Amino acid sequence: MVEPGFSVNGIASVFFCNGLDLGLAFVLAWIMAELLKNFSTWFWNPDVWTPPGYDWNDFVPNDKIEYADWNDLWSYPFYMAAIATALRFLILNPLLYGPIARRCGFKDIKVRPVVPNKLLEKTFWKHKGRVPSDVICESAKVLEWTERKVERWLRQRRSMKRISKHTKFIECSWQLTYYTFIFFYGVYVLWDKSWVWDIMNCWYNFPKHSLDLDVWWYYQLSLAFYWSMTFTHFFEIRRSDFWQMLLHHLITILLIVFSWTCNLTRVGTLVLIVHDVADIPLQFTKLCMYSAPKHITDAVFGGFALIWIISRIGVFPLWIIRSCLIDAPGVIPMYPVYYIFNGLLIALECLHVFWTYLIIKIVAESMRKEDGKLDDVRESSADPSELPDEDEDEKKE
Taking every annotated instance into account, which residue ranges of this chain make up the domain TLC (predicted)? Predict the structure, then answer.
């Protein structure tokens, strides 16, 4: 055994190796920085993002026009998103929403994880949590288990993916709080704005529109919320519309970023306010589904469906998208970002149509049920996270 110690050759070799590693890391970092710089230059080409005859230097805030500062998008919203996430999970959930949920009778039951099993895990996801009896029998033979033991494993695995009413109640409470606040704040901000009462003012004298401080806050708060929802989306139990909701968040973020960058904030505020108004009764309807009597739930759901259809299927496409597609070309010069912006608006409307179909489907299914009970707007019988609760005897097992 060689005695531990130091030597000149050893120290030199360590520094030499580390020097190579540090040099390689520096070269790679420089290459990545150059690639990112070139990509940014290519992506934010003024011929694409600014009207004909303008470039990015024309959008610098000055004494006459307070243009939107692009750098604000990559600082303040992330700070606000971090604050909102901390406020949600560290303060409101444990100190406000959790106690209210328990007062409503919803227990926060922690489910014990199952012992990992590749065969049963694959079987569980293949059959979306609803495993046929013959498959259970076959799995028991392969594992040399009893069928009862396999059923118990699957039942426990299903419990791990189920979203409890306690969790649902807390999630809806947070979103109801935000949407109520941001909607009334949006009404306060936009009440005296000319483009609310005449949408043509979104296009007149474009792009020389000054950004008011209250609109700045409205944008920053909205973007911060959607960033926080996007980040936490990956850490929550996946629902049946996981990818649709993620797509919705990303499209909304892109619309906010692009409309801010290209000084289309006037029409951007209209998109925000029209969407926020329907989200309040949506979250309130979910809370009623979990805790309120049937007649109250039905009344609230009816109000929500009416507001949703009017705002998302009526006002949004017939007022905002129509003006973007028909009014704008007659006032502002056409350039590539116009088509990008309108493409995102149309994609958002396609999601609205999809969710409207789900709402109509829920109404139709509730009318066929004997009890007429409504299900969660985002529930699906094929989603393990939304399977009905087990019998009490099974829970005890």
Answer: 167-368
Q: Can you tell me the distance from the alpha carbon of 377 to that of 289, in angstroms, rounded to the nearest whole number? A: 10
Distance CA 101, CA 170 (A): 7
CA atoms within 13 A on the CB side of 100: 16
Task: Give the CA count within 13 Å in the CB-facing half-sphere of 6.
Answer: 4
What ranges in the chain are assigned the alpha helix state H? 8-43, 46-49, 76-86, 98-103, 118-126, 133-143, 147-161, 165-190, 194-197, 213-233, 242-261, 265-291, 294-308, 322, 336-368, 392-396
Cβ of 158: how many Cβ atoms within 10 Å? 20
Amino acid at site 390: E
Q: Could you read off the pLDDT of 312-358 as tens digits, one per residue?
A: 999 999 999 999 999 999 999 889 999 999 999 999 999 999 999 98
- Look up the pTM and report it: 0.79
CB 106 within 8 A of CB 290: yes
Q: Name the token pair of 258.
A: 């692009």
Confirm if 279 and 179 have CB atoms less than 8 A apart: yes
Cα separation of 262 and 46, whole Å? 10
Alpha-carbon gap, residue 390 to 374, rounded angstroms? 19
